[in-house]
Amino acid sequence: MTRPSILISREVYPEVLARLGQHFEVDYRAVDAPLPRDQLLVRLADKDGALVMPPDRVDAALLAACPQLKAVCNCAVGYNNFDLEACSRAGVMATNTPGVLDDTTADIAWGLMLASARRIVAADQWVRAGQWDGWKLKGWLGQDVHHATLGILGMGRIGQTVARRAAGFEMRVIYHNRSRLPVEREAECRANWVDKATLLREADFLVLMLPYSPAAHHAIGAAELAQMKPTAHLINLARGGIVDDSALIAALQEKRIAGAGLDVFENEPALDPRFFALDNAVLTPHIGSATSATRMKMAMLAADNLIIALTGGRPPNLLNPVLNPT
Question: What is the residue range of 204's domain?
Answer without folding.
Answer: 102-283
